[in-house]
Amino acid sequence: MSVLKTVKVDALNPKEELLLEAAEIIKNGGLVIIPTETVYGIAANALNENTLERLYEIKGRPKDKPFSLHIASKDKIDNFAVSIPVSGWKLIDKFWPGPLTIIFKAKNGGTIGIRMPDDEVALRIIELSGVPIVCPSANLSGKPAPKDFSEAIQDLEQKIDFAIDSGKTKLGIESTVVDITTDVVRVLREGAVKKEDIERVASKKTVLFVCTGNSCRSVMAKAILEDKLKKMKRQDIEVLSAGIMMLSGMGATEATKEVLARAGMDVSGHRSQKISPDMLKKSDIILVMEKLQEERILQLAPEVKNRVFLLKEFAKINDSNLNVDDPIGKPISVYEQTFDVIKAAIERIVEIL
Prior knowledge:
CATH architecture of the largest domain: Alpha-Beta Complex
Number of domains: 2
Shape: elongated
Radius of gyration: 25 Å
Distance between the termini: 61 Å
Number of strands: 15
Helix content: 25-40%
CATH superfamily of the largest domain: DHBP synthase
Oligomer: single chain
Number of helices: 11
CATH class of the largest domain: Alpha Beta
Order of helices and strands: EHEEHEEHEEHEHEEEHEHEHHEHEH
CATH topology of the largest domain: DHBP synthase
């Protein structure tokens, strides 16, 4: 039987050497009690079959009830999951890191549960271990999940190899579990995230406008669509804008602000952001100003190909040029023309949303 070593760590400022010790034990096949924001868990190397056998035995858990993986960054998802629907990316964007376990289609067949905890100690240990980690709650099957260390160690002392005490968990309730492997998102277990919040996020449409620097054309498009949706009292659509260049945190151009202000729209609070794969994957429709932006998007996220369109395709304008040309550095009259073209396209888009 293993001899338990227990250490206390500051949840906000943990000692790196203690986390590294825990990570090495996990990597080498040991079992370690660690905190998460929900409840305490038993972390184990998912690649070590003997360790998993021991974990099932200690918990008294049926072998047909698999353990979920815990990851330290969203970019690890593709190592384990495939065919993730847009609704899944919306849930990931909204609730990770956090108390949501998502059931995906697994890369090697079947399904797999994955969670990214919102706890610095847990995330750092997972990262330092360098191996896939499972982390079921630190309790015997059938008993309540432990929300503080004393509950976690009660039935497991001398059964595991190492334990980290960082006090009471932030939430004290298990994660919500959702299945996204079918056409409809199903809540299998309601925990820290409420069912209605899952359904609201998963069903909300996301429209993303993309230009070059996210300072004029995509800003106009976002403002116009948001204005129309507000007048229609629609709250089921999220509108985003971004650029393909490395220009984050900039405001809209003065000419853009002026043209929109004349139409009763205030974008003085706008700050530019660069397009990201996560942003693209969670968007239901991606509208670009030029072919150049479409090409960049497909380099970042090829799977969104069927969701990317040139915005001007939707405008009822007799013009062979389907690009909405960049007005930067041109007279205000060009900005006004750009505004009119974008508005015409959005009149059509609103009809199909």
